[in-house]
Amino acid sequence: MVLAGWGSTAAMITSAVSLGVAGDLRSPFILDEVLRLYPPSFMIGRTATGKSSEFPFKSGETLLISPWLIHRSSRAWASPLDFRPGRWADRVPGAAPGSLPFGLGPRRCPASRFARTQATVTGDLLSNLPRPQATEVTLLENRSPALSQRRDKPDSVPERDLSSIS
Ligand code: HEM
Question: Which residue has the CA at smallest separation from atom 1 of ligand 1?
C-alpha cells in the first residue's frame, strides 16, 4: 500500500505546485483538473490472458492503456490541453467519460478517497506559500522521457501557454 501510494501522491502534489495551484486543492474542480492533465499513473499495463472476439489481442500480449493520452483526447474533452477547472462543473469525478486517473474496474485504486484527502490536507499546508511561476518543464521532467518532446521532432508535443493560469 505504501509503495503504491507514495510516488503517485507525490506526483499529484508536484503537478499542483508546478501549476501554481497547490494552495487551492480544496477548491472545487482544481484537483480533478490537475489529475486530468497530469495523471500520476500515465500508463497502465495488462497482459492478455485469453482470446476475445471483441478485441484483436492474443493471449500473452502486453497492452498499454495511457490515462495521459486519453485525458488529452479531443474526442472526450474540449480544448484538452487547457487547464480549465470549470469543465468539471457538469461532470462527476470518477465517472466522467475519458477520465481514469485512478484506473477503472476491479483493480481501480482502492485509495482514491484517501489520496484526495492527502491532496486537500497538503493544499491547506501550502496555502500560505507564495505561488511559484507555472512551468510545464517541471511537470514533464517528473514523468517519463516518453512524455517529453522528441529531439528529432521538436513539435511532437504541443506547446502550452500556461500564462493564463492564476
Ligand atoms: C493521486 C494519487 C494516486 C493515484 C493517481 C493512483 C492511481 C492508481 C491507479 C491508476 C491504479 C490502478 C493501476 C492498474 O490498474 O494497474 C492504482 C492502484 C492501486 N493504488 Fe493507487 N493511486 C494513488 C494513490 C494511492 C495511495 C495513497 C495508495 C495507498 C495508500 C494507493 C494504493 C493503491 C493500490 C494498493 C493499488 C493496487 C490495487 C489492485 O491492484 O487491486 N494508491 N492506483
Answer: 9
Decide: 23 in ligand 1 pocket, CB within 6 A.
no
101: left (phi over 0), alpha (psi -120 to 50) or beta: alpha
CB distance 101 to ligand 1 below 6 Å? yes
* Architecture (CATH level 2) of domain 2-147: Orthogonal Bundle (1.10)
For residue 65, the one-letter residue type is I
Report the C-alpha gap between 22 and 108 in whole angstroms: 25
pLDDT digits (tens, 9 = 90+) for 119-163: 999 888 888 777 666 555 555 544 555 555 555 555 554 444 545
Q: Return the domain boundaries, the chain.
A: 2-147
Question: SS3 breakdown of the chain: % helix, strand, coil, rounded to 5?
Answer: 40, 5, 55
109 Cα to the center of ligand 1, angstroms: 4
